[in-house]
């Protein structure tokens, strides 16, 4: 790791200096190795930030400066735009997914800024002013840890382990375990940055438990991810230090987090083992989790050296979505499209869950949905909050933008099964190239969720290795639906 390259530019918040600040950002992004398309996005975001400072921090032509601190590190470019103008409360900004909200032009501007960066942070410095920090991940291929390095890790002596919640000062040890176990092949970059891990825990989106030796060494980690206030959570970020493997730490951590989930009153826990290696699914099956969906092409190809898959042709990694109930499930009333009712019945039957199939029907209320794009994973997501079939042209446009403009290689479309318009939207989506990928129990605010997917890259299902028998049957069903979807859009080319 080299010493970060730091720069600083101070210019007047006046229009003639706009091209100067854009040129500075462009030069930094070029030196950092970003591609032209992403450099242009940062230039546009810089213009938006500069003009907002000019017009709102120093209104009426009041003189003032803009200070830009740049930092190029090993894995990220940081741009901090600082001013000492009028105080501002960022909570007054509209949501980035609500362009029709108050101050609509500001909302669109904020969307532009978020589109250009991987992270955006407001910083209030009191009498020193305020700042907007943009963090841009730098392009780097996934690095698998060399086999010869991992072989040098000696087995730790016998220890007594305490299983407990992670403390903030232990986050650095956890990130180092991820590197020791996976190199830089793990999908979520936050788990390689101590501050990212601490922020996830502090925001309530992650509950972290660790196994700690009597000497204070963190030997393993497991977390419950809960990005939304749903009555379920995903058990994820499982990692054991190579020096402490084979000592039952994962089982102990899993049991502790399961008890924590029960204390929280959650209906159940979702687990998403990789499909590049069936052995990774064994522990999930041991938790009585049942397969109910496939998240295909969820992240770029990873080289998990420990799995011995070096000879396999690289393709995007997929996950088997499984669910384990923590309490007897209540009966479900769902609106499933007719073509998928048999498979849906089989999925629900695994959980001994009573199922009532309700008829379709459009909603008189206006539809609502959210759109997100993960630049690092090249994955887009459209979540329908209120289903309305008449809104389909708008939803389709969002899907086209994710595929053709943002460059998404996989797009998921999540439909709420508790709402009558879901079968209608499903039919429209399948005609546009989306395909059935499974059911996510309690994945929507009002109940279960039907997931559809659309891929823009090839995927060989022979490399999608599934251990449980029903999981393999589900894979075959999804594969047939994927082939049907490909035929549906073949005459029209790439765009759905």
Structural features, described:
It is built from twelve helices and 19 strands. The protein is α+β, with helices and mostly antiparallel strands. It folds into three domains: 133 residues, Heat Shock Protein 90, CATH 3.30.565.10; 167 residues, Gcn5-related N-acetyltransferase (GNAT) (Aminopeptidase); 161 residues, Aminopeptidase, CATH 3.40.630. Helix 9 links the parallel strand 13 and strand 14. Helix 1 runs antiparallel to helix 2 and helix 2 runs antiparallel to helix 3. 37% of the residues are buried.
Q: Mean pLDDT, rounded to whole units?
A: 86
Number of helices: 12
Radius of gyration: 24 Å
Which fold does the CATH topology of the largest domain refer to? Aminopeptidase
Helix content: 25-40%
Number of domains: 3
Task: Provide the CATH superfamily of the largest domain.
Answer: Gcn5-related N-acetyltransferase (GNAT)
Unreliable stretches: 92-107, 141-151, 303-310, 492-496
- Which architecture of the largest domain would the CATH scheme give at its second level? 3-Layer(aba) Sandwich
- The computed structural class is alpha+beta
Termini separation comes to 43 Å
Number of strands: 19
Q: Please list the strands of the largest sheet in the order they lie side by side.
A: 6-7-8-9-10-12-11
Strand content: 25-35%
Biggest pleated-sheet summary: 7 strands, mixed
Text of the CATH class of the largest domain = Alpha Beta
What best-fitting shape do the alpha-carbon axes yield? globular
Briefly characterize the structure:
This protein is α+β, with helices and mostly antiparallel strands and 496 residues long.
């Amino acid at each position: 790791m080299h010493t970060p390259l730091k720069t600083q530019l101070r210019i007047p918040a006046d229009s003639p200096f706009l091209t100067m600040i854009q040129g500075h950002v462009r030069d930094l992004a070029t030196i950092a190795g970003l591609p032209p398309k992403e450099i242009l996005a940062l230039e546009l975001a810089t213009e938006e930030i500069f003009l907002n400072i000019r017009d709102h921090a120093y209104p009426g032509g009041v003189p003032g400066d803009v200070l830009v601190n740049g930092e190029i590190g090993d894995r990220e470019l940081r741009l901090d735009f600082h001013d000492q103008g009028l105080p501002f409360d960022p909570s007054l900004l509209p949501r980035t997914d609500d362009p029709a909200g108050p101050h609509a032009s500001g909302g669109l501007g904020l969307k532009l800024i978020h589109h250009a960066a991987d992270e955006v942070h407001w910083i209030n410095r009191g009498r020193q002013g305020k700042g907007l920090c943009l963090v841009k991940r730098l392009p780097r291929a996934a690095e698998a840890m060399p086999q010869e390095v991992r072989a040098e890790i000696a087995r730790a002596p016998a220890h007594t382990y305490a299983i407990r919640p992670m403390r903030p000062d232990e986050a650095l040890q956890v990130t180092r375990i991820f590197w020791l176990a996976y190199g830089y092949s793990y999908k979520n970059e936050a788990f390689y940055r101590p501050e990212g891990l601490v922020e996830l825990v502090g925001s309530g989106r992650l509950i972290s438990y660790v196994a700690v030796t009597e000497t204070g060494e963190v030997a393993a980690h497991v977390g419950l991810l809960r990005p939304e206030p749903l009555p379920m959570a995903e058990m994820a970020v499982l990692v054991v230090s190579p020096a402490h493997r084979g000592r039952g730490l994962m089982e102990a951590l899993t049991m502790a987090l399961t008890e924590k989930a029960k204390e929280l009153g959650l209906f159940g826990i979702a687990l998403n083992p990789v499909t590049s290696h069936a052995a990774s699914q064994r522990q999930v099956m041991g938790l009585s989790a049942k397969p109910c969906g496939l998240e295909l092409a969820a992240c770029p190809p990873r080289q998990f050296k420990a799995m011995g898959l070096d000879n396999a042709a690289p393709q995007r990694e997929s996950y088997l979505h499984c669910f384990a109930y923590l309490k007897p499930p209540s009966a479900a009333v769902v609106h499933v499209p007719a073509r998928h009712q048999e498979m849906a019945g089989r999925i629900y039957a695994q959980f001994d869950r009573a199922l009532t199939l309700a008829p379709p029907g459009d909603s008189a209320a206006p539809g609502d949905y959210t759109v997100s794009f993960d630049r690092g994973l090249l994955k887009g997501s459209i979540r329908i909050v209120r289903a309305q079939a008449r809104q389909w042209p708008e939803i389709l446009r969002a899907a086209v933008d994710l595929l053709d403009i943002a460059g998404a290689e996989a797009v998921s479309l999540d439909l709420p099964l508790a709402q009558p318009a879901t079968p209608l939207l499903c039919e429209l989506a399948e005609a546009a190239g989306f395909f059935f990928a499974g059911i996510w129990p309690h994945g929507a605010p009002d109940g279960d969720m039907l997931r559809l997917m659309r891929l823009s890259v090839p995927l060989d299902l022979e490399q999608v290795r599934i251990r449980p028998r029903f999981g393999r049957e589900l894979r075959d069903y999804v594969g047939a639906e994927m082939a049907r979807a490909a035929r549906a859009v073949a005459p029209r080319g790439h765009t759905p």
